[in-house]
Amino acid sequence: MLIAPSILSADFGNLAADVKAICEAGCDFVHVDVMDGHFVPNLTIGPVVVTSIAKVATKPLDIHLMVQNNSFFVDLFAPLKPEYISFHIEEEKHPHRLIQKIRSLGIKPAIVLNPHTPAESVEYLLEDLDMVLVMSVNPGFGGQSFIPNVLEKIKRLKRLRDSINPKCLIEIDGGVSDKNIKLLKDVGVDVCVAGSYVFKHDSLKTAIDNLKI
Length: 213
Ligand code: DX5
Ligand code: ZN
Description:
alpha/beta, TIM Barrel, eight-stranded parallel beta sheet, binds D-xylitol-5-phosphate, binds zinc ion
């Protein structure tokens, strides 16, 4: 299991220190939640702050867009050379075109599915994707409870993924902890995002190690 701590639960007054600390504690990616106050009822950070994060991060960035006007935000974040940019399929009229654009910028494209969005919605996009991010909470906030019926969706997605593009990773985001990580591994999750579980733990290293199963 690859681990992508979400800095949404970090101390924003000490963001550089927290980003360094999760990298030193052995995470695989730094998950950055970008919210615009329109697609989701919350606002987070833009390219100015993420530039500072990128300077201190020793692990690649995994940027999760929760915005309207995805293409505009891709242009804003592309110069920071993240490993992944993921966008919500519910908010994109031309997902295939945007996937091509992200790839042309040298970034791995990923699509995010809200809890109500079926696995099959990415069937004809899978061959062009590097990752599918399955939301296991409604996007917008950290610290929410895991929605269990997402497990069934991941099983379906894994079947599609295995037959169409086995190299495409399956990532999960929301309510992940040491309590459900084994279940997630068993249904086929490759990458887990965890915010509150990691940052509320006494030891970042122990929290990350507990998820690396
Ligand atoms: C929610 C964000 C998540 C969030 C996860 O919209 O996409 O990345 O930070 O937080 P936890 O792990 O606390 O559910
Ligand atoms: Zn996220």
